[in-house]
Amino acid sequence: MHFQPIEHMADDTYTAQGQDTYQVEVDTPAANDALDDVFGSGPSSPTAEHHDAPHSAVHPSDMRRLQTEHSTAGYREGVSAAKDSSMQAGFDEGFSLGASVGLRAGQLLGMLECIADAVRGRDDPDAVRVGELVREAREELSIGTIFKPDYWAEDGNWKYEVPPSQGEDEVLFTDVAEAHPMIRKWTAIADEQLALWKIDRTILDDETGQRLDSVMDEPIASSAVPIARKPLDW
User: Fold this and answer.
1) 158 in helix, strand or coil?
2) In terms of Cα–Cα distance, which of 226, 198, 193 is closest to 214?
3) How far apart are CA 70 and CA 66, in angstroms?
4) Segment Disordered: which positions (predicted)?
5) Measured between alpha carbons, how far is 106 from 142 in angstroms, rounded to an integer?
6) Does residue 111 belong to any structural domain of this protein?
7) Total H helices, total E strands in the chain
8) Exposed site from 17, 31, 70, 177, fewest CB < 10 Å?
9) Residue ranges of the alpha helices (H) in 40-180?
10) Greater confidence, 202 or 220?
11) Neighbours of 158 (CB within 10 A)
12) Whole domain around residue 182: which residue ranges?
């Protein structure tokens, strides 16, 4: 019976154990590759997770902030450009319209004040009535009344109906002024007073004519009621 020498068995066992140990040592570095994070091959790589996530759910926080800032800047630039192109035209139109309405209101008020000054001191009811009309006209023909929101919209357009002048296709500024509710009311009152005191309206429109002081049959300070009134020469 043949027995293997003991020293040879020990050498073979050592050799086998050495081979197993070497295999374990070779496999361990392969699992811990130092370039794993660089190329994103590992499951914990943030680059790999970014490509695996849905595109709509991933949006850098700075991108939203920049988008908001650029949108706001573009809106402001657009508003500034629109103001530059339309501000002057809007101012010219609004100024002309406001001047037409204010001029007509001032003419009516001035006309009534002139009549009231001419008949001041008289004791007849018509003269007293003119003084009362002047006080009412000063309130209703004031800027705060004729330009209040009841008659004008925020964009400067009128809220009341404005028919065009006869023979005209478009509405003019004078049409807007004449159609104003307060202007229409006091135009009718002024026409009544002109007819009552027999005042020639054309004299007031004549800028080249000579203005004369009012002439009455009786003195202005007289308390007697005149039998007949003559036209007042201005």
Assistant:
1) strand
2) 198
3) 6
4) 33-68
5) 9
6) yes
7) 9, 0
8) 31
9) 46-52, 61-118, 125-140, 143-146, 173-179
10) 202
11) 16
12) 99-234
